[in-house]
Amino acid sequence: MRGRLAPEDVGLRSVGRRRTPGLRRQEVAERAAVSIDWYIRLEQGRVGAPGSAVLDALAEALLLSPVEREYLHLTARGEAPPRPLPDGCDGAGAVTSSLRAILDGMPLLPAYVLDHTFDILAHNAAATAMFGDGFGHGTASNAALMLFLEPGTRKSQLSWEQIARETVGALRANAAKYPDDARLQAVIARLRSGNRDFATWWGDHTVGERTSGVKRVAHPTAGVLTVGYDMFTAPDASQQRLVVVTPVGEETEQRLRALVAAHSRRVACEGAEAGAAAVLAG
């Protein structure tokens, strides 16, 4: 890593003839605010397990990428470092146009995008049909808050405890990845104070990550739906997840199709009525 950097890359002047390309050990040590003797022993593997803060200083000194920084921690300490959020991310990250197109390109499958705090950043019309017009708004703008704090959600999620425990584990894992994120801490604090089950399970220190599974949902008009759910990491936005709900079995597939079709007709009728009213008003 030293050899690939020139002094000019890190704001240093190249003085004198260099026997080998790249930065000198002394220059890296100074940039990382460590002693040259300690740094030499580190390169030779004779310092034991260095601290996380020192490794981050070295990663910055050597201009390591996020992937290289994580590899450095895994190699030196045997554990991954806390993950910084992308620059400019304040917990309400924008969904890319390509991801938005993917959502809208699945008209029969409910789909939505979550960030690391479980805030719902975007969703398609099929998700509105399945979860209701309030989905993505108010308390329902965060999947974890909706799950634990809305009584109607608890009644409709027939696999509530399964999903709830998975959510607690995922939030705890995210809290370790993003320990300084204020929005994430606010969501967790609200859940701990607002739901006894969440507070109990949070105290168990369960850690996990929601990726896929099957659940049963009681819909007010479509009846009981058995659906699968899969979570995919959004490209170029590791803190975002694309969640896709798929029917399990022919009966649920038919009910879900009818539900989405009915929602589309209702939206079309409401649009036509609004257009007619606008014409009359004009």
Short synopsis of the structure:
With 282 residues, this protein is α+β, with helices and mostly antiparallel strands.
Structure description:
There is one protein chain. This protein is of the alpha+beta class and 282 residues long. Helix content is 49%, strand content 12%. The protein has helices at residues 25-32, 36-43, 52-61, 66-77, 97-104, 125-131, 143-149, 151-156, 160-177, 182-194, 196-203, 250-281, and strands at residues 111-114, 120-123, 212-219, 223-233, 241-247. Strand 1 and strand 2 form a beta hairpin. The protein is elongated, with a radius of gyration of 25 Å. It starts with 24 loop residues before the first helix and ends with a helix.
Low-confidence stretches: 87-92
Number of helices: 12
CATH topology grouping of the largest domain: Beta-Lactamase
Number of domains: 2
Strand order of the largest sheet: 2-1-5-4-3
**H/E element sequence:** HHHHHEEHHHHHHEEEH
Return the average pLDDT rounded to an integer.
85
CATH class of the largest domain: Alpha Beta
SSE-based structural type: alpha+beta
- CATH structural architecture of the largest domain: 2-Layer Sandwich
Biggest beta sheet summary? 5 strands, antiparallel
Question: What's the Cα radius of gyration?
Answer: 25 Å
Strand residue percentage: 5-15%
For the secondary structure, the number of strands is 5
- Quaternary: single chain
Approximate helicity band: 40-55%
**Overall outline:** elongated
| Distance between the amino and carboxyl termini | 69 Å
